[in-house]
Amino acid sequence: MRLAVVRTLALGLWRDRGALVMSFVLPVIVFLVFAAILSGATGDELRLRVVVSNEIGDPLSARLAAALAGDRSLRLVAPVMSSAAQADAAVAAGTADAAIVVRRGGRPLDDLIGEGLAPVVVLTHPARAVAGSIVGGAVQRAYFTAMPDAALRGVISLVDSAIVQLTDAQRSEAGAALDEMTANLGKGGAEADPGSAAPFAGLVEIQPSARSRGALDQVTYYAAAVAALFVLLSAVHGASSIHDDRAAGIVDRVLAGPSGMAALIDGRALFLVAQGMAQTLVVFAVAWTTYARQWPGALWPWGAMTVALAAASAGLTLLVACSCRSTRQAQTAANALILVAAAVGGSMVPRYLMPPWLQAVGWASPNAWVIEGYSRALGPDPQSLYGVLPAIVLLGVGAAGWMVARRRAAGWETE
Amino acid sequence: MEKTTPQVLVVHEAARCLDRREVLAGASIQVPRAAIVGLLGPNGAGKTSLLRAIAGRLRLDAGAVRIDSLLPPAARRLGRLGIVPQEIALFAHLTVEENLSVLGSLAGVPPAVLRGRVRDGLEWAGLADRSDAIVATLSGGMKRRVNLVAGMLHRPALLLLDEPTVGVDADARARLHELLRALRHQGIGLLIATHDADEAAVLCDEVAVMVNGRVVAQAPIAHLVRDVFGDRREVSLVIEPPVSPACDALLRHERFQPAGNGRWVSRGSAVHADLDVLLRQLAAAGGRVAETRIAEPHLRAAVALLVEQHGSRQAA
Predict the structure, then answer these.
(1) Residue ranges for chain B with pLDDT beneath 70
(2) Is residue A103 part of a domain?
(3) A142 with A68: CB under 8 angstroms?
(4) Which of A29, A41, A187, A373 is most enclosed, with most CB atoms within 10 A?
């Protein structure tokens, strides 16, 4: 008897191709996507996009720039610039994950011990703060690997000036300074000031990009990412319910009147847009009030992106629903597509941590455009074509999906 | 004033092949105004296909459909056609009133009169006190009534009903019959697809019988029964088992067919005139007849006989 139950379930699974795909193919796809992401984030494939600005232009800084260009964990997306403002703009615009600026007014690259500003600044976007730390580490690695002579020159200078010909008082003072350094090192963790604990840490300073201040921070990034994922998931239910209406005879009844399938599709689309906007508002409201504790100055760019997100979700889920034959098939297909789109589009892991090829593939995901769109809408230049482009793309995708869904549904009117 | 024709529905020689199968093979049917026409036939005869063709949901390879003198798309656009599907075509999570408002709106009822139409429909169907009830909580009979009201909110000239009383008890069925007769009284033409010839006999003014994609007969019930049977009767015999081969051959020769539980039925043969002779022959062949019944011709038997005569691809 138990075997009869097993046989029934096995036959049910075998004959339900959608369930079969969900059970065996989807896990493999999601695994491959996550494996690619995580191997990229932790292994050799991590290559952050950076721009380098050399405000000094001397041989030493040129050597550092060349060393950075050869670093395997970095991708220089533009030739070395002379202006920090250009680099800052690239970070704010999202064309670079971080900028490395060899700045004017900092300590010389071969003298990291003395007073003054760190010679190198890494500019980061608030939504890609992790990139700052990674790039900072890459700068230190490039400096000590490619320019050991400069580093040693600093040490010799230190010995010459601070260790040779010491007086008793100086010895005592140095001992006290070293004791203090030891004590600071002992505190460890994030509370210790690296600059006061270890002199060489003064090579790099990490700052937020000036033009991206107030833009999408980490919390807002994930608000956009989560909203994109769940607006799509919620829309699946409403879109695929068209098949429930067909099975229940409601479609037959409606088609006897003047409305036609277009009314059923349009009504669903309008509802899904309203639902998606409400969901997104709730997610962002919680994010801004709970974590950011402030709302953005201008809400209309955010509003435009929210309409675009909801419209794209409605159009795409309706397209999938109208391309399937049953509720179950539509939900299975849509959920599979949404999970993959969320993974490659940055809803689960930031795209800048993915391998370059996967970042390129990610542009096929609406999630990537949503996250990029909110980043630009809350950035310094939301009214430019650059700022509104993601919203335009999403609105176009939504409208196209909606229209194709209408055409496919119209085919159900007459057999 | 709009010119009206005596027939609210005229289907002429409708034909359609689907997947190399002739689902409609030149079907013709007419529904007069203020009349109830039953569409009878076995499974697979083409009843649903014919309803779909009338509603404009099935393209025809040949033939024509006119609803109130209009082609189906125009009739739909002008609200001349209503449908009551076999399924409970309602939103289960909405109340009765919400369902009627939504479906009335989708049927093209102007917003200014929708509320009044819903109220009238609820009162007409005896559902006014259940207007706030969630449809999923209603009894089967009540759901059927809401299903019916939803199909006529826009006051169509022709109402197509597919098994409108399936799955309800006798009281609920009688209530639905009252409502359908009331619709006829309002001047609406009703075409009801059903398997139940007994129901059609008490409800319909005319019946049309479909076999293999064609309407093989359409007439008022008494006429149709008379046309099919003439002065013949339905004779049934119960033979105690075992039935000898000689008896079996004799019964089949006289056009009797086994009907289960030892019963053999002859429809439309003139055997009743020579029944005594047959009974003697059966006795001589070793058959023991436990029961003999001669029935007046009735619609169910007439339909069964028509199906037999026209060789249904699937038994009735």
Answers:
(1) 1-5, 268-273, 312-316
(2) yes
(3) yes
(4) A373
pLDDT tens by residue, A88-104: 888 887 788 899 998 88
pLDDT of residue A271: 95
Task: Indicate whether A304 belongs to any domain.
Answer: yes
Query: pLDDT (tens digit, 9 = 90+) per residue, B254-281?
Result: 888 888 888 888 876 665 667 888 888 8
Residue B76 at interface with chain A, using a CB cutoff of 8 Å = yes
Contact B82 A256 (CB under 8 A): yes
Closest-CA residue of B relative to A253 is B83
What is the CATH classification number for the domain harbouring A125? 3.40.1710
CATH of the domain spanning B231-296: 3.30.70.1150
- Candidates A247, A257, A415; nearest CB to B106: A257
Residue A123 sits in the same domain as residue A242: no
Contact A259 B56 (CB under 8 A): no
Q: Could you tell me if A311 and A358 lie in one domain?
A: yes
B-contacting residues in A 229-258 (Cβ below 8 Å): 247-250, 252-258
**Strand arrangement of the beta sheet that strand B158-162 belongs to:** B81-84, B158-162, B189-193, B36-40, B206-211, B214-220
